[in-house]
Amino acid sequence: MADGQQVCSASGIPIKNIYTPEDTKDIDYDRDLGLAGQPPFTRGVYPTMYRGRLWTIRRLSGFNTPEETNKLYREEYELGQTGFSVAPDVSTVVGLDADDPWVTADIGHAGVPMSSLEDVQATFEGLPIEKVSTYMADRCGAVNTAMYFVMAEERGLDLQEIRGTTANDLLSWSVPALINQPPPQAYVRYAVDFIEWCTEHAPKWNPVSFDSYNARDCGLNAVQELGMLMATAIQYIEEEKKRGRVSLDRFVRRFSFNTGLHNDFFEEIAKLRAARRMWHRVIRERYGIEDPRCALFRVHVQSSGSTHTTQEPLNNVIRIAYQVLAGVLGGAQSIHANGYDEGVCLPTDQSMLLSIRTEQIAALETNVTNTIDPVGGSYYVESLTNQIEERAWQYVQKIEDMGGMAEAIACGWVHREYMDATIEHERRLASGDITIVGVNKFRMEKEPYEVPIFRWDPEAPDKQIERLKKFKKNRDQSRVNQALQELERVTRSGENVYPAVMEAVRAGGTLGEIAGVQHKVYGVWHHPIGV
Amino acid sequence: MDKNKVKILMAKPGLEGHWRGIIAVSSAFRDAGFEVIYGGHMLPAEIAATAVQEDVDIVGLSILSSNYMRLVSETVKELKDRGRGDVMILLGGIIYKEDFPALKEMGVAEIFLPGTPLDEIVEFVRRNTSEASQKVS
Amino acid sequence: MAGSDEGKVTTASGVPVKDIYTPDDIKHIDYERDIGIPGKPPFTRGVYATMYRGQLWTIRRLTGFNTPEDTNRRYREEYELGQTGFSIAPDISTAVGMDADDPRVSADVGHAGVPIYSVEDMETVFNGLPIEKCSTFLADRVGGLLTPAYFLMAEKRGIPLNQVRGTTANDLCTWSSIDLFNQPPPDGFLRYAVDLIEWCTQNAPRWYPVSFNSYNPRDNGINAVQEMGMLMATVIQYVEEAKRRGRVPLDRFVRRFAFNMAMHSDFFEEIAKLRASRRLLQRIMKERYGIEDPACGQLRVHVQSSGSTHTHQEPLNNLVRIAYQVMAGVLGGAQSIHANGYDEAVCLPTDQAMLLAIRTEQIVALETNVTNTVDPLGGSYYIESLTKELEERAWDYIKKIEDQGGMAEAIKSGWIHREYKKAIIEHERKLASGEITVVGVNKFRLEKEPYEVPIFRPDPRSPDILIERVKRLREQRDDAEVARALKNLEAVVRSEENTFPAIMEAVKAHVTPGEMARIQLEVYGPWTYPIGG
């Protein structure tokens, strides 16, 4: 790196050659940092952090069929994984049943197909869901979550005790160009309905995980990532404030978060520290919520897929190791280490093992968990934390000026930010402004080695279609029809839709049928992407 | 000397200099009550001569460079030449799995890779030396 | 982890670690006195003012295998991949100073390194490589052939010796930790070592004539405090010897000291160790020896991921370990880094492992932005407090060694080896009890290895090739010249004179490493490491 040229963090914050006490002299320790588990939570949400409990090792996974996914989950459980994250396949994400000709080709790709209650049951067959926590990367309206809850009921478990998280998040939803989605404002309605319902019926469930992972993977920087994340959370609270059905402290109590972990090691650490302070300020200063539990920015982080390369895939083991370490030093509650073959295929057994090992090595061999917020006090990290926070607030303000996150998505601004970021990233890559080892620098003529490849099961679609047909044949069709009619009525009213969703699932309604009601009422929205 | 004690010669054939492994294993053997002769660097012929002279039950070889095939076969040959083909040979160090069959064919009783719990090695010796432990003076 | 149990949680070296560190924990630290800015005493934050913004660390890997020809091919590949320095690992025969046709060593020829017996072999190793643009590390035997052969090669290429850049190991500390055959006793070692330093101050001023090295001792199980203590005690030993001789002013004697340390598992302790070591060295030079020139107290350090932390089981896990250790080296401000091959515990590195080792360093250097600012952790309550604590504990350990009569005496008496043995046994105990975790070994161990990795096999023909070569060397050289050089060398070794010019002459005359080593042992007597028993 040539001296003299402006050195910046990945988000463009100018970085000095050296940071000294001068750079942190405006920090008031008690006001800005404090102890872990105490406002403003900069140093951590819990007083003992990893000395009390390690982060959860959790990997978003799912593939082919519920049976095969179940097998994988059992293996992960054996290896010491302590939580599951269900990645739905494309058919499930777009809310179409396996037997819909639109999605036949996509069944079992990139996730597990879950058209019906039976699919969810098969996915969790033999796993003690009362002992683990499950993350559902659910589509709009938390329909698969309803299936999970009904499964729990059928197992005789008390929903009051069941632990897990539903994505239920406008921000990450906004990113992929998915067909068959409701417009943003409708998304917020379903999302907030679900949160309201959980406050009463599933109080240990995190009813939303505000998630900037996918947005970050579009090329956004850390400041934009935090800005959009906070703006989305604010959007939800504003909606509930408008409704006034649930007190805000109960509404926000179990908010959880999900961010990417990108390459810029210290910026990512500073980002998590800044996020904790920002969230505390949102809750305490903006909404006047006094309960400190509401101000806890509990976060699941994941190594950024967009930083992984198809070239020399084992290089990703190293990238992922650093991103995981940044998550740990940033004080995350849960971490997903990607498979090193993320840029090549779905994870193989080998890559899955290595990602779990990465977290175990960070947790058990490096002693970085010995003390809380070990980088706290560093002139550089503290100064960077401040600057990220400051810049992220400005970005939140920008979104608010547009009428909030839902409006900013609806009008296309958010997608312009994504597209600009993507194009800018490509430009910087081409100019060598940023380096990706083995890609735009030190690229080899020939791939130096092969890695094992995961192959999708071409029979997955037929198996799923068959199962679904049988499921539909065996249910009480009139009960289903009745439940779906009731769901439509409730959807058209201002009532909370979720009890009707639960009832539709109990009656044997499928994902496609339930999502169909969404579209009947709200229409289908088109992502403002294109050139 | 207690003749009922299992007697082990620990040696490094070849001149490669890592000694952490052999010391860890030697100490574990000693703690387990075996009689340990620490030979350090020795030529295969020296190992065999010492094994005969000290009337050992076991020869433990530690090799961390990749020349073990040659060093082990020479050691086995030297022992046989001296009429002590019965001595149990244990091998530790960095050994390729694909060479295990050939090494066992040569007469190595067991091979211990890095990361093997010391208890496991001690246990192996105990299990396989019932004759040795009943040896009469 | 034991949970929030104060006093029970410690660093790997046993420093108690609190739940959380706050400004209270660094109140006793004076910024100007103890931390300061990089490039200025006490150098806590780095030896250079701009550090990696000015120049990245050198990516350097200790390599060598089979024959000089094969090693040359590997070096050329490494050079193409962007490696910026070379490190010669001599094979066992070269390290012990025995010629290939010596029956004691012939099985070991070409194993664990490259056999080099002459200037010509050295020329083969560096064939086609621009040594004027690189710096080279020579893990030479004391009084060995590698350094003179390298210098003679440079002269033959027309590169003046005062332009040649590189380092000779020449270090008592690491030598103590490896059970090498055919060695002189510690005082003999020290004599040769100090001779080379003296000679270089005059003749090869850009060469680092010694790299004090605690890598191998650390791999014997000692902890970070012991590592620092042994390292610094060795430095003191050398300076004391130079002081006793009085031939070279101390500021010149110490000017080009280089260092080599291990990067072990305890991430922050390793970072703090490098910071504390910089402060220690500066204080030794300034406070103990009154050397005012700040250039003399700079701990320029090469670090290497610790082989002893790498596992034979699930070898790809080592990629993660090595990645963390390399990162610790970077955050600690190292000048040069060797990332091990992930297959370190399986075989000599394959092409794939070597590539990944280099990629690890490149990814840290070019993708993570940790090089954006100097000493990014400086000021951290935990790091500053740990740095201070480690420094204090290292002083205590140095004192212990001095009480033994210094490092050479402590080695000779067996004290150092008792420290190693205690550490080895203690480590095994902790592994067995689960006090320390090694993932995939004493925790989460799989019944069956889940996958295979490629392995490297040395060429079984190497011994024969080298035996042939050394025989030819003896046939073709001028016997009278050899006899003269050997006679002169022996006379010089028996005198108080500096041995290095005579060693250069001997190498020029094609005296073999075995012949040179024989003189060492004749004069000083052979020495056996106090390991057994």
Kindly give the count of domains of chain B.
Answer: 1
Q: Portion of residues in helices of chain B?
A: 40-55%
Order of helices and strands of chain C: HHEHEHHEHEHHEEHHHEHEHEHHHHHHHH
Spatial extent as radius of gyration of chain B = 14 Å
Mean pLDDT rating of chain C? 94
The main pleated sheet of chain C reads as: 9 strands, parallel
Summarize the structure in words.
The complex is a heterotrimer of chains A (531), B (137) and C (533). Helices cover 48% and strands 7% of the residues of chain A. Chain A is of the alpha/beta class and 531 residues long. Chain A has a single domain (21-411), classed as Alpha-Beta Barrel (TIM Barrel). In chain A, helix 8 (184-201) packs across helix 10 (222-243) and helix 10 crosses helix 15 (379-401). The mean pLDDT of chain A is 93. Chain B is an alpha/beta fold and 137 residues long. Helices cover 43% and strands 23% of the residues of chain B. A five-stranded parallel β-sheet of chain B has the order 2-1-3-4-5, sandwiched between helices. In chain B, helix 1 links the parallel strand 1 and strand 2 (35-42). Chain B starts with 6 loop residues before the first strand and ends with a helix. Chain C has a single domain (30-412), classed as TIM Barrel, CATH 3.20.20. Chain C has a nine-stranded parallel β-sheet. The longest helix of chain C has 23 residues, at 381-403. Chain C is globular, with a radius of gyration of 23 Å. Chain C starts with 30 loop residues before the first helix and ends in a 9-residue tail after the last helix.
